Every structure is written in structure tokens, then in C-alpha cells.
């Protein structure tokens, strides 16, 4: 089954390695091999948009991005680094009880380690 969750990751090898090292430290090398930054590691708002919430007590993984401020002519005025707080798929759960078979299957594919709460 195809799961349509995409992050705004831009393909930076440095940020990939930085976040992967945090995943390896927290869950081990086998889990770090499963890391796919465009699909299973999103911001708090990113997970929320897809119907998931961060589990209580979870701490964010840290990453960074570079922001460019441009003037009216489109020229870069200022460039600065911004910290980004990310959550790995193991740190989230569905926001609601799942009722549709499609939602249940999507959750099983994306979050194979959790028990899926189905509506009665």
C-alpha cells in the first residue's frame, strides 16, 4: 500500500546524517536504516496535517534549515540558520480512532509498531 506522507525535506545530506545519528542513538542501527526523511520524519504540524499526534512526553529530534530573506528585487538580503524540531514515526500515533479500512491500512503501513485503535 502506498502512503502519501511527504515532508518538506530538501535533500540535504548533512541534515540527513544529523537526524539519522539521533535516531541511531535513540533506537539503534536497525531503526536508523529505516529512516526516510521525506516520509517518516516530520514536524509537529506536519504530522498533525496527516492526522497524527506526537505521543505525550516525546522529545523532538533536532535538525536545521537555512532561510533566505529577499528584498523586492528578489536579491538575498540575509541568510540564516533555523532549528527545526522533527518527530520520527515511532513518536506519533493516530489522532482519532480509525474507522475506515483505508485509514486502518494506512496506519498499519506507516506505524507498524503500534496497536491500531479501531472504533467500536
**Number of E-state strands:** 5
Helix content: 25-40%
User: What string, H for helix and E for strand, traces the elements in order?
Assistant: HHEHEEEEH
What average pLDDT do the residues reach? Answer: 85
Tally of helical segments: 4
First and last CA, distance: 24 Å
Strand order of the largest sheet: 1-4-3
**What is the subunit organization of this protein?**
single chain
| Biggest beta sheet attributes | 3 strands, antiparallel
Question: Which secondary-structure class do the elements indicate?
Answer: alpha+beta
Cα gyration radius (Å): 17 Å
Report on this structure:
With 120 residues, this protein is of the alpha+beta class. Helix content is 29%, strand content 26%. The protein has 4 helices and 5 strands. The protein has helices at residues 13-27, 29-32, 44-49, 101-110, and strands at residues 41-42, 52-54, 61-70, 76-88, 92-94. The strands form 2 sheets. A 3-stranded antiparallel β-sheet has the order 1-4-3. A two-stranded antiparallel sheet has the order 2-5. The radius of gyration is 17 Å and the shape is globular.
Amino acid at each position: 500500500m502506498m502512503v502519501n506522507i511527504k515532508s518538506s525535506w530538501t535533500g540535504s545530506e548533512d541534515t540527513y546524517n544529523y537526524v539519522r545519528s539521533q535516531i541511531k542513538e535513540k533506537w539503534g542501527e536497525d531503526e536508523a536504516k529505516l529512516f526516510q526523511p521525506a516520509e517518516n520524519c516530520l514536524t509537529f504540524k506536519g504530522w498533525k496535517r496527516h492526522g497524527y499526534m506526537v505521543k505525550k512526553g516525546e522529545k523532538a529530534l533536532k535538525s536545521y534549515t537555512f532561510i533566505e530573506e529577499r528584498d523586492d528585487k528578489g536579491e538575498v538580503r540575509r541568510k540564516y540558520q533555523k532549528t527545526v524540531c522533527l518527530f520520527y514515526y515511532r513518536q506519533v500515533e493516530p489522532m482519532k480512532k480509525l474507522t475506515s479500512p483505508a485509514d486502518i491500512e494506512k496506519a498499519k503501513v506507516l506505524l507498524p509498531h503500534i496497536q491500531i485503535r479501531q472504533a467500536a
